[in-house]
Amino acid sequence: MSYVCKTCSKTHEDLPDVGLQYPDHYFGVPENERELRIKCNTDLCVIDNEHYFIRGVILIPIHKSEDDFGIGVWVSLNKENYEKYEENPNTSDIGPFFGWLCNSLLCYEEDTQLLKTMVHFQSNGQRPTIDLEPCEHKLYQDYSQGISVDKAWEMAHRYFPANKDNAYPGRLI
Description:
The chain has 173 residues and is α+β, with helices and mostly antiparallel strands. The protein has one domain (18-159). Helices cover 18% and strands 28% of the residues. The protein contains four helices and ten strands, in the order E-E-E-H-E-E-E-E-H-E-E-E-H-H. Strands 3, 4, 5, 6, 7, 8, 9 and 10 form an eight-stranded mixed β-sheet that branches. It is globular, with a radius of gyration of 16 Å. The chain starts with a strand and ends in a 14-residue tail after the last helix.
């Protein structure tokens, strides 16, 4: 499956990571109020100066491969930890911090909102990695036990539907 990367604008043939553009809370704010109530970029989001989110990646191991399937998600942090990261976005010397997963993932029947996570910060311009806390959810099972490459492709196709221009649907970036 080839796709056009929104970051580098190049066509790739390998398994793509997927990422969500905003925390789901963003869509709870009426569109005509978003400019006043939300401060958001590709890595940070604050709603009403009281809800703080950062974007990171959940890495799901792929069986019989050295590669992972990455899912870019948003997690909420408390204000103090959010501000530490905002002031030091390119260091692994802070955290890890607790956060709540703030996206519903299309590839899981059971809602993924509010799963417990730990956020691990990285240097070298890399987004934080998100570790899921143990639970009964299928996402945690996939995260802890890995998935087949076929399942990774199936999950990617939920976000990259077959169409003539490989357009990104809805909330995906």
